[in-house]
Design brief:
Largest sheet: 5 strands, mixed
Distance between the termini: 31 Å
Low-confidence stretches: 1-62
InterPro entries: C-type_lectin-like/link_sf (IPR016186), CTDL_fold (IPR016187), DUF1554 (IPR011448)
Keywords: Signal
Mean pLDDT: 81
Order of helices and strands: HHHEHEEEEHEEE
Protein name: DUF1554 domain-containing protein
Structural class: alpha+beta
Number of strands: 8
Strand order of the largest sheet: 2-8-1-3-4
Oligomer: single chain
Radius of gyration: 29 Å
Length: about 240
Amino acid sequence: MILRDRIQTDLKTAAILFAATLVALSLSACKSDENKDTETIAVILVTQNLQTTTSTPSSTTTNATCATTGPCKLFATSANATVNAGIAGLDANCAADVNKPSGGGTYKALVSDGTNRRACTTANCGTGTGESIDWVLKPNKQYVRSNGTTVIGTTTANGVFSFPLTNGFQATINGTNGIWTGLNTNWTSSASDCTDWSTTIATNASFGVHDDTSNAALSVGTAGCSNAAKVVCVEQ
């Protein structure tokens, strides 16, 4: 469709230029030399105006995201998270999960490994967003559950939530509420993160509970990485 419109536009423009050339030649033959330049310039200006008014507007790509268009959504996965495939693997869980809201959008896992993704290096990012790496929450942004209406809370200027939340990240799913986070209760990175989310063998990770409004949403302790838990996903 785009190619056809472009061809039609090019043919229309060529026809205009040809007609304008004929007009210019006719005027040149009929007018005295002192008027030729004036008439030719007038024809050129008219031609340019016609090209502008008949050309097809160039298509624009709108990369609208919730960061600029409205509240962002959060959801907890229905499936248990894959903890041995790195941050990318956890993000892939978000992209593929059945709980992901309709309408497209990119979702990333609310987890930290301290190196590739982190929220803060000091409690609640005391020095600002410069402490973050590939962090999934935006500063001063309202977040809602996947239904688009239940408000979870609004982040601070440092890109983290203050507690208590208005509502938990999500209600209990299938009788369970554990989520892997790799976070401490103050948004700093935990030393326990399944060895940078790379293995389930003989390692632990910090986990929280997604239906809690306190900082227990981030961490209530650690558990062996062979255990089953979900992950919270954040719209970007």
